[in-house]
Design the sequence.
């Protein structure tokens, strides 16, 4: 039994015992006993004050026997009620307080992490993917119950609060975060988070869920770098399953394989990187890490060069796209160097 249920049970038993005492003294005490007298006798008996009998019970042996049994019953009831209240405070409130402080310290140590706003099914998928790929992250949601539900997936970092408010995002370390993912129930709520996030950290990357396609432009104008439509993604997946089933099966196996996690991932070459000025062949990233280079995007450009040649040069600002496991990406980031691609703060949930 939880401390909350135990407290409710204790209060219910206490109320029953109190009513039983008042009824017993009124019925067994005699005609001279009023309801007020019976209630008063019940109170001083339950409280173990010992003021004495309201009326003499020497001529009412049944009432005296009832008083003896009732006193013993009250002692047990009080002990149960006090222990239940203590358990509720110690196991509940104190535990929550200590847990919250411990979590605040853990979140304060995160850098280059991701903030996930919301706890719906989309957010749960986001959390699962971040955990599998060993990315540091923190959940922000106003509901303690929803946080507890998503914590069933494993140990996670969390902040209880409204993600559209400055205080909640600041507790989540938005000034140190690499990106924020908005997955709240409505487009309006996601829009508020986008505006708040960009006002606190203009450089942060924001990806938001857009339920209504008409809201996408508004979110982008508010600062969202990308807006994802669940219905659009679902429709594209249905078509892929129909016209290119082998490809989708390959991607499914890559995403769902538990023994070895492979993903399409990217590494940005920072200024001053030891890779800058080398060719892809000279860098020899595939043999050094096991990652498969599939594309490159020139710094500041929008077009991708698929399967780049070994003689192609690497420059600062280039984005290299790989098929790789999380540990391979960590090795690539270490090789690339730079403040953005250095060792990341590790999420305890990913341990």
Sequence:
């Amino acid at each position: 039994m939880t401390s909350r249920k135990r407290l409710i049970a204790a209060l219910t038993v206490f109320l029953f015992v109190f009513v039983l005492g008042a009824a017993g003294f009124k019925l067994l005490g005699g005609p001279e006993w009023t309801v007020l007298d019976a209630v008063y006798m019940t109170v001083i008996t339950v409280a173990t004050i010992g003021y004495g009998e309201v009326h003499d019970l020497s001529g009412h042996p049944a009432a005296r026997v009832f008083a003896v049994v009732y006193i013993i019953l009250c002692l047990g009831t009080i002990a149960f009620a006090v222990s239940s209240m203590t358990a509720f405070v110690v196991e509940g409130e104190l535990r929550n307080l200590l847990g919250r402080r411990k979590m605040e310290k853990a979140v304060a140590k995160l850098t280059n992490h991701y903030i996930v706003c919301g706890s719906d099914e989309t957010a749960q998928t986001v959390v699962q993917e971040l955990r599998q790929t060993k990315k540091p992250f923190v959940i922000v949601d106003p509901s303690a119950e929803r946080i507890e539900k998503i914590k069933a997936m494993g140990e996670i970092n969390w902040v209880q609060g409204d993600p559209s408010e400055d205080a909640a995002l600041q507790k989540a370390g938005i000034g140190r975060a690499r990106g924020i993912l908005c997955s709240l129930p409505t487009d309006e709520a996601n829009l508020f988070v986008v505006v708040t996030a960009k006002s606190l950290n203009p450089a942060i990357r924001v990806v938001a869920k857009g339920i209504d396609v008409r809201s996408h432009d508004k979110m982008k104008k508010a600062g969202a770098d990308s807006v994802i439509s669940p219905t659009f993604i679902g429709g594209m997946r249905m078509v892929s399953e129909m016209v290119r089933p082998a490809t989708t099966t390959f991607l499914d196996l890559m995403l769902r394989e538990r023994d070895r996690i492979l993903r399409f991932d990217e590494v940005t070459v920072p200024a001053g990187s030891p890779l800058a000025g080398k060719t892809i062949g000279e860098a020899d990233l595939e043999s050094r890490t096991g990652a498969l280079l599939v594309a490159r995007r020139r710094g500041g450009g929008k077009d991708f060069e698929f399967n780049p040649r070994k003689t192609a040069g690497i420059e600062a600002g280039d984005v290299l796209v790989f098929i790789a496991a999380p540990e391979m990406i960590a090795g690539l980031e270490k090789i690339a160097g730079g403040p953005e691609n250095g060792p990341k703060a590790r999420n305890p949930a990913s341990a």
